[in-house]
Amino acid sequence: MLRLWKAARTAREFVLSARRDGGTYELEWPHVQRKLGVAARGAPSAVARLRIAERILMGFLDPVEDALFVTAGLISLGYPASFHIGRETAPVVAPGGFYAWVQCAGAVVSTSLPVREEYTEVLRAGEEASC
Description:
Layout: H1 2-18, H2 43-58, H3 63-76, E1 81-88, E2 98-104, E3 107-108, H4 115-118, E4 119-126
Antiparallel strand pairs: 1-2, 1-4, 2-3
């Protein structure tokens, strides 16, 4: 449990330090040594616990900052996580929306929406992005 709170505090600091004026972000992901034995299949329960810690430490975040927090928290726990932003495939012209999600070892772990089918990925960042 202590490891989770340490990861949540790291994620909080990451989100706060990433914020820039004008609604932009500068992403410098937490650097951790990959822990052997951290199974990606445990990521969904880690996401649920991180979200509880997120609500306690930061309240309710918008979808982008929620995905940033979860990604940084998973990376801090040793998971190969990545942050993704995608644009809706329909409508093809404006006003198509954007959505952010988190993947771990190739699986979407932050939402039950079919993001791979309904969004065209426009940004990928984080640990898994460099694998």
